[in-house]
Amino acid sequence: MTDLKTPNPEAESRLVELRSIVEPIQLAQLFQKPQPLEVELGSGDASFLLEYARQNPATNFIGVERLLGRLQKLDRKGRRLGLANLRGIRIESAYFLRYLLPPHSVTALHIYFPDPWPKKKHRRHRLIGGPFPALARQALAPGGTVFLRTDDPDYFQQMIEVFGSALGFKPIETPSGLAEITTDFERDFHAQGIPTLRAAYRQWPLTQLALS
Prior knowledge:
Number of strands: 9
Largest sheet: 9 strands, mixed
Distance between the termini: 41 Å
Helix content: 25-40%
Radius of gyration: 17 Å
Strand order of the largest sheet: 1-2-5-4-3-6-7-9-8
Order of helices and strands: EEEHEHEHEHEHEHHEH
Structural class: alpha/beta
């Protein structure tokens, strides 16, 4: 069992301090209620996740972010809003999926405006690459969904190609209510006239895909 130093439901902090990074976290220790779980990878200033968690109190949410300052915003604003269904974890996103998230525990993954690494020699660092669908399958519960957004057309094309060639995923429309909740980057891009490119993919049993 992973040793976690984490707040009880009445404590102030929404941040989880990991004492072990080699075993899956115990989700029952993080939240007051055992509810469906959604995860945002790269939560930025957490403006999307704060609003989404506020609108969906019957779902638990984890924001994963490498930068402490951004997570501190999630913590501060989450406490101010009294969001018992929100937690933040400071760690690299792919590592979190591969090693710390219990398998098949998540109903949705949100990846919005990840670093596009625009130089060709750096594109291997992109989160949404060839190995990512396997990590998503490991994380998602049956019927779970991956929601993607970017402003970068080249990265968007890569996202579509990666999931289009991955077994076990089928494209779906992003729900309008979800699309209306924007991120900090998204608002900045819209102010510059740069549109949001969206895609979403639901995990399906391979037998169902073969029959569809």
